[in-house]
DNA sequence: GCCAGCCTGGCACCCAGTGCCAGGATGACA
DNA sequence: TGTCATCCTGGCACTGGGTGCCAGGCTGGC
């Protein structure tokens, strides 16, 4: 079972994690430098010094180098949501859960913006992003449904979760359009206000 | 310019349209029969009797066989939206425009449901679907922005259009989940009500 | 009957992704 | 310390979508 129980990593796991990080760093550098589509897996593998085959053992796809954490982030949001007080309404709970599950690690902001821009401009990346979002939806809908009453709880929850994710996207779009010179949370709140107003 | 002005098609255009329809029909039949991913382009071209190369001249990708009309539909919605009275609020106008631009042609309902289900289950299809939706967004946002006042008109319009499209998706999801035994418009209205309530 | 235009098939590519296999490093255990 | 199972690795071959290019055929106009 690959020792998930032990706090300390085995030598293998440490090496695996390190290599994964190395691949990711090298790939991101190439992506930023030449663009995502113009960078081939062969080029990444060559700079890292591993085989093409091994690359796909660490990342299921080229897109996964950039979007790999997203599935885990979705689960984190779901966990944070479960811990919110029952009295809180869905929108507030979802907002709080997403904030709580935000990753603290901030890399180079310039590279971050470049990567975010890439995600918005590259079709295949956007596509995978939405795929992961679908996973978020599936994880969040049942939890939100518990906070909604009525016979249509599932449907209502589904609509709300989709709308929230959609607002995240709208905010993220605007953030990229503003070259990162904006408060993402404020943009999100404005998006929510825009669709729920009068 | 490929005679878009003349009402009557040239012989070439007629043949082209016919062949395109033939490819589409054959491909859909195979998709429904074996599934989208399990059907290869080679199998499609073999049944139609054309070359692989020609297939990609008629459809930019395998997904385009199913999603080809979507770009045009987006433009149709935009055109319908432009003709709506200025006084109408964005939500009502968008709703009316989408209804007006709905295609009248109904094929075999069984096949329709199968294809809709395929679109929801096949990642690559969903991905392309969202890509086309992005195109809808780009076409609709400026028109909606005219109906919104304030300095944030563009942003507000963007949020609204995204939310509307998101509700379409929620409705479509539910429609597929109900095996097509539901009124899509009613589902859409319920989705909108769900996110704008309270 | 000639010519320009569009379309066709076929070929050679590129690139992402997968299955398979042989071999090397590692840790547990006798 | 030797042995064995485990995990990882590289390499190879293959599939499948998609593209650039080119030679040739059909069409319509002159």
The total domain count of chain A is 2
In CATH's first tier, which class of the largest domain in chain A applies?
Mainly Alpha
Assess the beta-strand content of chain A as a share of residues: under 5%
Encode the helix/strand succession of chain A as letters: HHHHHHHHHH
The termini of chain A sit apart by: 54 Å
Helix and strand composition category of chain A: mainly alpha
Q: What's the short story on this structure?
A:
Two copies of one chain form a homodimer. Chain A has 198 residues and is mostly helical. Chain A contains ten helices and no strands.
What layout of secondary structure does this protein have?
The structure is a homodimer of 198-residue chains.
Chain A: H1 11-34, H2 41-48, H3 52-58, H4 64-67, H5 69-82, H6 90-100, H7 109-121, H8 123-145, H9 153-177, H10 184-196
Helix pairs in contact in A: 1-2, 5-6, 5-8, 6-9, 7-8, 7-9, 8-9, 9-10
Chain A binds a DNA duplex (30 and 30 nucleotides) through residues 2, 10-12, 15-16, 40-42, 50-54, 56-57, 60-62.
């Amino acid at each position: 079972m690959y020792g998930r129980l032990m706090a300390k990593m085995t030598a293998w796991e440490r090496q695996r994690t390190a290599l994964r990080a190395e691949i990711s760093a090298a790939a991101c550098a190439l992506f930023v430098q030449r663009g995502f589509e113009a960078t081939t897996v062969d080029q990444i593998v060559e700079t890292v010094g591993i085989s093409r085959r091994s690359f796909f053992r660490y990342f299921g796809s080229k897109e996964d180098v950039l979007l790999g954490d997203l599935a885990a982030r979705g689960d984190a949001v779901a966990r944070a949501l479960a811990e919110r007080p029952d009295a809180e309404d869905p929108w507030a709970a979802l907002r709080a859960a997403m904030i709580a599950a935000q990753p603290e690690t901030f890399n180079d902001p310039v590279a971050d913006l470049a990567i975010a821009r890439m995600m918005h401009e590259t079709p295949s990346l956007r596509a995978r992003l939405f795929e992961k979002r679908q996973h978020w939806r599936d994880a969040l809908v049942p939890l939100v449904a518990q906070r909604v009453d009525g016979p249509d709880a599932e449907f209502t929850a589904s609509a709300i979760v989709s709308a929230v994710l959609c607002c995240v996207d709208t905010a993220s779009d605007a953030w990229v359009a503003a070259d990162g010179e904006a408060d993402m949370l404020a943009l999100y709140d404005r998006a929510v206000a825009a669709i729920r107003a009068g």
